[in-house]
Amino acid sequence: MATGREIAQLCGVSVATVSRVFNQPETVNEETRERVLRVARELGYQPNESARALSTKQSTMIGLVWDTDHRRPGWRHPYLQDLLIGLKSALSVHGYHLLMLATSGDAREVGASLADPVGYVNMTRRHHLGGLVLIDSGSDAEAFEAFAQSGVPCVALDVAVDGPRATYVTSDNAGGARAATRHLTGLGHTRIATITGPPGNQPSRARVAGYRDALREAGLPPRDEYVVAGDFYRTSGTVAMQRLLALNEPPTAVFAASDEMAVGALLAARAAGLRVPDDLAIVGFDDIEIASVVDPALTTVAQDKPGFGVAAAKAIMAMITGAGREDPVILPTRLVVRDSCGA
Amino acid sequence: MATGREIAQLCGVSVATVSRVFNQPETVNEETRERVLRVARELGYQPNESARALSTKQSTMIGLVWDTDHRRPGWRHPYLQDLLIGLKSALSVHGYHLLMLATSGDAREVGASLADPVGYVNMTRRHHLGGLVLIDSGSDAEAFEAFAQSGVPCVALDVAVDGPRATYVTSDNAGGARAATRHLTGLGHTRIATITGPPGNQPSRARVAGYRDALREAGLPPRDEYVVAGDFYRTSGTVAMQRLLALNEPPTAVFAASDEMAVGALLAARAAGLRVPDDLAIVGFDDIEIASVVDPALTTVAQDKPGFGVAAAKAIMAMITGAGREDPVILPTRLVVRDSCGA
DNA sequence: CGTTTCACCGTAAGCGGTTACATCATCGTA
DNA sequence: TACGATGATGTAACCGCTTACGGTGAAACG
After folding, report:
1. A50 nearest nucleotide via C1' and CA
2. Integer distance in angstroms from CA A29 to C1' D25?
3. Which of B53, B77, B96 sits opposite A81 (nearest CB)?
4. Which residues are in the HTH lacI-type domain (chains A, B) (predicted)?
5. How many helices (H) and strands (E) does chain A have?
6. CB of B118 within 8 A of CB of B192?
7. What CATH homologous superfamily does A61-172+306-332 map to?
């Protein structure tokens, strides 16, 4: 590994000049600059990031806080890969890398879990991270708030947070739910139910609100028995659907707040001898991969999955350089019409 | 941020002693050790990882090389999330973190892509990474070989590599394929076809070999027209299936080398008016999520997805500490019988 | 011709740890 | 009593880079 010192010696300049060539090129004479650059190239010079970080007190890494909630072992993020693709590519534009923070192995007192953000914030300081990206892993929003209040730049995904240098990005959940429900009312349905996410979940609440909006628009009275809670999981969709089908006046259409639950509902409907979409119309949310392979293919509200990552990266970078707080980002959604509503 | 020096002053010892408390605790007197520890805790001391890395020439991070091959924009890893879960948790046991390396933004000459591993290896040196984990992203194995030869400890997933400090982990692809095909012969099928992955792909070749083994065991003659190549994508499965159905003597059973292609084949069969499993039996490979939601649910060969990550982490750590080369890891597979074979 | 300005560059002090080596007291032993 | 062994700690160099500050020479100015 060639060092700056070696380059300096070979070029007959000081290490300071070498450093300046890379950090403030305009302050060094063009001739010597090119000489340094050439030698650096020949030597395959790679600046030592540790030394640089030590000196400047900041690294070119941002941390990813992604804890699978241990209270829900089977939890999977619906579209982690797309999110990471967006995040990674947007960060790379600025020369930043993504550090997937690990909870300390011997979780004695470090206790780095989402429920106790201290460990993560400590890691942030240790590594001089530029900021944190917080992925909603189904746990409570309180932990997110603690992150946001810690002072480190952070952007949360799908959880509204507020803090001195914190912001969040989320989909237009209400709008998406409205579009989904409108699609149903537009098809003539009047008995439209919804299967929601966990009560505390913010996107879930927004989706319920959008659902209610669309009913109101269509002049349909809200019915409490048509709103049943799930947890985004597939089986909860099945259970919810069974409950709905047991009603005196079962719905003819269902808006599920996740594709997983929509599939669960579809299974329940099929088990009950109902044909989809003829006897029951179903709309989902997310547009994950399975939406297009189930039979019938699921009509659903698509989220801009890589867009989450890109927006998060932009927000983080803006907070790092700008040092201020950023406005939340609301990503547009898009209704994808397939076969589960008979449209 | 408290530093070691502050602790030293408060404790009336030197910074060397503070450092020793954390790195060679046994060499420092118990009394002073506890004093240092207590003060460190009170001050919320977090060691500066940049300084430590600069001094020791090694960080507590290992790099993840995961490039979505740009020649295949839509490419997705079939089970990235599970893999990451395993990787992350296994690394955290050793106090290591995962750095998702980004290709340099201005890809002038740095050219950090899988096709040109130089950029990644440079990043490895810059950050003093302990090693690299290479995720197969569908690109050619040559690039992997270049990584393996670079001298940095690295473990490849699903690509057999050889190098001074390189190894790999993969599934028992042949065994899995054998089990899948045996399942088919066991059900009485004699006309069994296979849809393979890309010709150059190693797991794909092993699966073909396993398929052939099982045919031989059952005394069935191999038929070239029953082996048609796909690319692991869904649509290639559809195309391949159409080709198979056009044969004079179409197969009554198909082993697809990926679940995605199995689904594609299923779609083609359905479009051709065939009933699955009655007219055609299908087995897949991977056991990804969609396998259980398609209709009929897919019988498939399950891979130990988190196991990939865990094994990779173990191998990397072994190479970091042991400094030698490690044996490749072959993960067991498991046949998951569902409904697509009528078993 | 003296003085100011400015572009360019070197000097050196950090940044916060790690560790080889020296120091020193203590203790067992010849 | 002298001496080597041992355990505990301090000293100081070093890791490679950044940057405030000062110095130099040439050009511009009065």
Report:
1. D16
2. 15
3. B77
4. 2-56
5. 12, 12
6. no
7. Response regulator (3.40.50.2300)
Joined together, the tokens standing for residue A206 give 């927004």
The nucleotide whose C1' lies nearest the CA of B14 is: D10
Average pLDDT, chain B: 91
Q: Which two tokens stand for residue B245?
A: 């159905």
Q: Which residues of chain A register pLDDT less than 50?
A: 105-112
Task: Give pLDDT, residue B141.
Answer: 72
Does the nearest atom of strand D lie within 7 Å of A47's Cβ? yes
Residue of B nearest to A260 (CA): B293
Q: Is nucleic acid strand C under 7 Å from B27's C-beta?
A: no
Contact B101 A97 (CB under 8 A): yes
Closest by alpha carbon to B231, among B94, B93, B75? B75
Residue B17 approaches strand D within 7 Å at CB:
yes
pLDDT band at B70 (very low <50, low <70, confident <90, very high): low
Instruction: Compute the nearest-CA separation of A220 from chain B (Å).
Output: 33
Kindly give the interhelix angle for A4-11 and A30-43, rounded to the nearest 10 degrees.
130
Q: Peptide bond before B277: cis, by omega within 30 degrees of 0?
A: yes
Domain A173-303: CATH architecture, name and number where available: 3-Layer(aba) Sandwich (3.40)
Q: Is the CB of B16 under 7 A from strand C?
A: yes
Q: Could you read off the pLDDT of B94-141 as tens digits, one per residue?
A: 999 999 997 654 443 333 455 568 889 999 999 999 999 999 876 667
pLDDT category of residue B45 using cuts at 50, 70 and 90: very high
Give pLDDT tens digits for A26-43.
Answer: 999 999 999 999 999 999
**Domains in chain B: boundaries:** 4-47, 61-171+306-331, 173-303
What CATH number does the domain located at B4-47 have? 1.10.260.40
Look up the CATH architecture of domain B61-171+306-331. 3-Layer(aba) Sandwich (3.40)
Which residues, 6 or more positions from A249, have their beta carbon under 8 angstroms from its beta carbon? A191
Contacts of B53 in chain A (CB under 8 A): 50
